Amino acid sequence: MVCSHILGFPRMGAQREWKTALETYWKSGSGAACAEPDAESLVRMGKQLRASHWALQKKAGLDWVTVGDFACYDHVLNHIQLLGCEPARFGFTEDMSELDRYFAMARGSLREEGGQALSMTKWFDTNYHYLVPEFLPDTVFSLHSERLFDEVKEAQALGYPVKAVLLGPVSFLYLGREKTDGFDRLSLLPKLLPVYREILERLHREGVRWVQIDEPVLGLDIGEKWLAVYEKTYAELAKEPVRLLLTTYFSSLSGHIGMICRLPVDGLHVDAVRGAADLQEIAARWPSEKVLSVGVIDGRNIWKADLDKALALLKAPELARRGNLWIAPSCSLLHVPFSLEAETAMDFRLKQCLAFAVEKLDEVHALKEALEKGDAAIGKALDSSRKTVAFRKGDWVHNAQLAKRVGKLAEDADRRKSVFSIRQALQRKRFRLPAFPTTTIGSFPQTPEIRSVRASFKRGILDEAGYREAMQKEIAFCIAQQEKLGLDVFVHGEPERNDMVEYFAEFLDGMAMTANGWVQSYGSRCVKPPVIYGDVSRPKPMTVEWIRYAQSLTDKPVKAMLTGPVTILQWSFVRDDEKRSVVADQIALAIRDEVADLERAGVGIVQIDEPGLREGLPLRRRNWREYLDWACRAFRIASCGVEDETQVHTHMCYAEFNDIMPDIAALDADVITLEASRGDMTLLQGFSDFRYPNEVGPGVYDIHSPRVPSVKEIVGLLKQASAVIPADRLWVNPDCGLKTRQWKEAFAALENMVKSARLMRETVY
């Protein structure tokens, strides 16, 4: 029996309807003050989107519709409510609705104390961010939400066969964080399992036959302590009558396969894109009477599948003789855009090479048809696939001159001229900044007026002169606001930029943008990853004009803002016919040329953001060294072509860096700024343990929350930071850019930040 299914579907909708609905709801007021009709509208839109997504799965011929993958903000946050472990620090009262509590955890409560939003970090090595569960010794669990069961009923009422989705208990605990020193969150597992059993029993009672139970941490080096609990955990869950499909993705399962194949579950899903090398061993060891789901369609990238290659894998003897074979994408389709249908203006050469979520549904079904009825049943699809494979090998993707330049890079191209101590002295003499210098990460609020100007220019309604005048006016406003606030290092505010990667992609050869290829990053925040289809080069300067203009308006140093090569690579859909390290070097040379032009224009401080560097770290530690070597080298190629007096900053956020501190130091940036406020500065411990040699700017407030932090809060964080890092090497800045905030919030928060820095100067010096 061959079945087809998916692990999850994009939540935002074909036109980002969910983003619009969320932001409309939030604007009307948050928490219990939100008007009931707006809440009803939000719930209604969610129901409409789910019905539409299930209809697409059914139309494509899939055997199951996947239920439970939709989230108002984040699927891990869904489980925090489902499992009844909302942190007590929020002080929720009985009169607060589930939705109000949900968004308080996601975005922060307006309460002065205890209302800080849950920490947010990257979902494995993707650009999706999940909200981190918090665990204490007295954490209790209980079935506390009807959301999942209501969605099951919605799908059943529409006549669909339902496969429900749960994040597995071990992964849920592993992905959380202890909030008490010395406490082991794994000790909570005996209290958690009865609630999972209750959920499974309830789903079975509601008529659900299969539950997809995701355990993605099985693709990590999680250690013996965590691996040891799996057999007892699933022996307990197997007592419930519903069938369990244990789901893994994003990585090889090497080293864990024997244990996994002993688990008392009814099916196993494996990522046959990233874990293809495991498939033969798994197929040989996995009991033949059980379901084996093979994730053969790439759920992380947008290239059309090579159907011949996929069928060869599925027809391999070890799979062909199985009686229960399911076909699926490698992981949830959350990580790809909705549909190619909206890409009406895309170059036909590129468009014919792509498949978004809706098109991947058809690819999954086509493979099932071929296995059941023979290749002739999908003749047209196979012919199209073969033409695409051949076309992607053409000359249109190659740049011989660039290849020559990459091959002849000087041996010292990734090294600064002098060591940091010499550079630091020269930079301090040049800029004469006070102790605890204040700055921001780059962007200022992107108002509807700014977006309207950009859209008008893009559509040809506004000419270039009008566009330049509007952008200069906004830059002048940003500079004036920073003068008023008393910041020490300014930025130009980035009004001309739609996204920190998309902006640069529009200037670079070998990269293309979609019109509607949006992918959820977190909450209502969506990004539109570029498509790297060929060799990447920079035909002309990208930022110099705007930074030069901003610097002409002030005597304070204006920091130029660039996105680093690894982040551009990581936050794009990358070609799969070239080594990632080669593509990284190509992008690094483009950024290096931009830095050189900025320096020639008189810019003294350049920030090259690399939030994607930690995210790109392979999930298995044995692959770290190779990645870190080429990734850190790419950053240095981009940043090291400057004089000692030029100060290079980098910024990183929403990931754990403590395990790669030597490599962060090896970037040799003069200043690193990073997200730290949501984690109560715990991230800084690594900088202390390693004795990080250069200057550091830990983020002192969370820009993803509308809360304005008090001076008391910020000073408290700065005191924590100064206990770890010498005060003469500390900068003061927000966690990240301010583009998603409103000016009123941003100005008030920055005002308190500047006051806090001044208080620290008085206290310490």
Structural notes for this entry:
Pathway: Amino-acid biosynthesis; L-methionine biosynthesis via de novo pathway; L-methionine from L-homocysteine (MetE route): step 1/1. The active site is at residue 704. Its EC number is 2.1.1.14. This protein has two domains: 2-393, TIM Barrel (Alpha-Beta Barrel), CATH 3.20.20.210; 400-764, TIM Barrel (Alpha-Beta Barrel), CATH 3.20.20.210. The strands form six sheets. An eight-stranded parallel beta sheet has the order 1-12-11-10-9-8-6-2. The chain has a five-stranded parallel beta sheet with strand order 17-18-19-20-21. Strands 3-4 form a two-stranded antiparallel ribbon. By secondary structure, it is of the alpha/beta class. Helix 1 (17-27) packs antiparallel against helix 2 (36-59), helix 12 crosses helix 15 and helix 24 runs parallel beside helix 26. The longest helix is centred in the N-terminal third of the chain and has 24 residues, at 36-59. The N and C termini lie far apart (75 Å). It is globular and about 75 Å long. Helices cover 41% and strands 12% of the residues.
Key terms for this structure?
TIM Barrel; zinc; repeat; single chain; 765 residues; 30 helices; amino-acid biosynthesis; alpha/beta
Q: Structural class per helix/strand content?
A: alpha/beta
Q: How many strand units?
A: 21
| Major β-sheet annotation | 8 strands, parallel
The assigned CATH architecture of the largest domain is Alpha-Beta Barrel
Using only CA atoms, what is the Rg? 26 Å
Portion of residues within helices: 40-55%
Which spans of ≥5 residues are poorly predicted at pLDDT below 50? 30-37
Mean pLDDT: 94
CATH topology of the largest domain: TIM Barrel
CATH class of the largest domain: Alpha Beta
Placed side by side, the strands forming the largest sheet appear as 1-12-11-10-9-8-6-2
Strand content: 5-15%
Taken together, the total number of domains comes to 2
- The rough form would be described as globular
Distance between the termini: 75 Å
User: Count of helical segments?
Assistant: 30
